[in-house]
């Protein structure tokens, strides 16, 4: 009976095919005691070519890859090759921070900078592809200083796990890919899993990541085809350790079974990995908002694992992943031995609701139903570009009161204005969007700030000054606005 309910729920949800309402474009697998309860594939692996998804379609795990990197480090610990409290500098003498330990890197408590580290390099050399092996050199070249004393705070840092992949290579004398294959993938029988490295010779098949190119376009595009995502999808798409393991939902279940069946690590080490890490002051980092999973509960972090404590379901562990145009989630309930694995290559806003409802149904609860509203910002801007100001205003006027089916976001309108201003150089369209945003949200300092920026770019100095002054009047702490206003007045 439960199988029938799950199937009915998933198909009823996923039958909402309008792009704004599509709940999942990807794959989902649900298991109990390691056995599949249900699996479903939906939508397209690649939208432009209309290549369908199937249950064997490989996905980039994004940050779920961190659990594999952590597993590799803990395997080396079990073999006596390292200790978690060892300074990373012990293995890489050129690493400039003697107080940062392996454990700090595993628990995101190092204070190291994240992807912003490479901005100066890529500005100077736009075709740079950042590989794992240039990371330490960049930390040295830029004279980086950790944001806090290691262990004092939690701050998510992809670069920490890139460093850990280098450590695996140095200690094992294997490439990171070879280590994963020999010590994790093959022991777990994950024969459809690979490490993606665009700087090498292997390019394992994987889905395309998709986004809407702008608020004026209502069809999905490949992320790799859009210039605005070049920094993350080209320049920063090669480093390993933090991301770039390619696998399927079925292989991911095999990892789950091997990990919690103690085939990869000893029981005590598994427990260590999924225990919250204490900060220097003896407290734990906790968050009221959990990764992907909706509802009441609290999140914390172990060693490469996100930890979930939910009153309705007990304790669980796993990890979420995100890239532009891609969302992934892996969850293992420790109390009920339930597993949920979900991938979506459009990063749909409803992704969390799909995962949450899968959990609810597996625990004999009614799914949460809701109407997914359409974005008025997208409708307005699309109409503005295609049909003009009057048609766009008419659409907005007619639909704005239908709050059951449409929503209007100041942030989306602002983003749409900047898209038109800087990405498409349609300054008249940008001015219309920013002007409307001021009228719709007159108490927001940011709407006036943005409108002032566009007016200044259009050469309307007097009007720009007036808008910046209004923005600062609403928010005297608007330092960026104060600086821009001073620049305009001095010209």
How are the elements arranged and paired?
Blueprint: H1 2-14, E1 26-32, E2 35-42, E3 44-46, E4 51-52, E5 59-60, H2 65-78, H3 102-106, H4 119-124, H5 135-141, H6 158-172, H7 176-185, E6 194-195, E7 210-212, E8 220-222, H8 230-235, E9 245-247, H9 249-260, H10 267-273, E10 286-287, E11 298-301, E12 306-310, E13 314-323, E14 326-333, E15 338-344, H11 351-362, E16 374-375, H12 376-387, H13 389-399, E17 406-407, H14 410-423, H15 427-440, H16 445-457, H17 461-474, H18 479-490
Parallel strand pairs: 16-17
Antiparallel strand pairs: 1-2, 1-15, 3-4, 5-9, 6-9, 7-8, 10-11, 11-12, 12-13, 13-14, 14-15
Helix pairs in contact: 1-11, 2-6, 2-7, 12-13, 14-15, 15-16, 16-17, 17-18
Describe the structure.
With 491 residues, this protein is an alpha+beta fold. Helices cover 40% and strands 15% of the residues. It has 18 helices and 17 strands. It has helices at 2-14, 65-78, 102-106, 119-124, 135-141, 158-172, 176-185, 230-235, 249-260, 267-273, 351-362, 376-387, 389-399, 410-423, 427-440, 445-457, 461-474, 479-490; strands spanning 26-32, 35-42, 44-46, 51-52, 59-60, 194-195, 210-212, 220-222, 245-247, 286-287, 298-301, 306-310, 314-323, 326-333, 338-344, 374-375, 406-407. An eight-stranded antiparallel β-sheet has the order 2-1-15-14-13-12-11-10, with helices on both faces. Strand 7 (210-212) and strand 8 (220-222) form a beta hairpin. The longest helix is centred in the middle third of the chain and has 15 residues, at 158-172. It is globular. The relative contact order is 0.12.
């Amino acid at each position: 009976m439960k199988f029938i309910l799950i199937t009915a729920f998933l198909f009823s949800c996923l039958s909402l095919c309008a792009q704004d309402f599509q709940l999942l474009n990807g794959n989902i697998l649900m298991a109990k005691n390691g056995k599949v309860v249900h699996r479903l594939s939906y939508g397209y692996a690649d939208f432009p070519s209309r290549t369908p998804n199937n249950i064997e379609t490989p996905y980039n795990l994004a940050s779920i890859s961190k659990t594999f990197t952590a597993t590799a480090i803990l395997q080396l610990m079990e073999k006596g090759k390292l200790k978690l409290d060892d300074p990373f500098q012990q293995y890489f003498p050129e690493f400039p921070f003697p107080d940062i330990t392996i454990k700090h890197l595993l628990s995101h408590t190092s204070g190291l900078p994240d992807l912003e580290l490479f901005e100066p390099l890529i500005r100077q050399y736009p075709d740079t592809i950042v590989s794992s092996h240039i990371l330490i050199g960049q930390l040295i070249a830029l004279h980086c200083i950790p944001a806090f004393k290691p262990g004092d705070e939690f701050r998510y840092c992809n670069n920490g796990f890139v460093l850990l992949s280098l450590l695996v290579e140095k200690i094992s004398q294997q490439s990171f890919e070879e280590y994963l294959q020999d010590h994790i993938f093959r022991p777990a029988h994950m024969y459809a899993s690979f490490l993606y490295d665009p700087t090498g010779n292997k390019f394992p098949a994987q889905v395309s990541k998709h986004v809407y190119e702008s608020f004026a376009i209502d069809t999905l595009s490949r992320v790799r085809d859009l210039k605005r995502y070049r920094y993350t999808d080209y320049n920063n798409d090669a480093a390993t350790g933090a991301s770039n393991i390619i696998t399927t939902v079925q292989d991911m279940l095999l990892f789950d079974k091997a990990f919690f069946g103690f085939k990869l690590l000893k029981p005590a080490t598994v427990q260590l990995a999924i225990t919250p890490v204490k900060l220097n002051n003896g407290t734990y980092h906790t968050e009221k908002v959990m990764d992907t999973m909706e509802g009441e509960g609290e999140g914390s972090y172990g060693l490469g694992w996100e930890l979930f404590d939910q009153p309705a379901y007990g304790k669980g562990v796993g990890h979420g992943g995100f890239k532009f145009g891609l969302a992934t989630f892996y969850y293992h309930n420790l109390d009920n031995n339930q597993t949920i694995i979900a991938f979506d290559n459009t990063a749909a806003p409803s992704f969390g609701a799909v995962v949450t409802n899968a959990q609810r149904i597996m625990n004999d609860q009614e799914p949460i139903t809701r109407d997914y509203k359409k974005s008025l910002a997208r409708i307005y801007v699309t109409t503005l570009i295609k049909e003009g100001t009057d048609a766009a205003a008419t659409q907005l006027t007619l639909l704005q009161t239908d709050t059951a089916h449409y929503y209007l976001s100041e942030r989306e309108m602002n983003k749409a204005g900047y898209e038109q201003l800087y990405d498409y150089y349609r300054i008249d369209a940008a001015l219309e969007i920013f002007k409307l945003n001021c009228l719709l949200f007159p108490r927001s300092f940011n709407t006036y700030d943005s409108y002032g920026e566009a007016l200044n770019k259009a050469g309307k100095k007097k009007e720009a000054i007036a808008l910046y002054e209004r923005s600062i009047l609403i928010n005297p702490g608007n330092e960026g606005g104060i600086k821009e206003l001073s620049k305009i007045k001095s010209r």
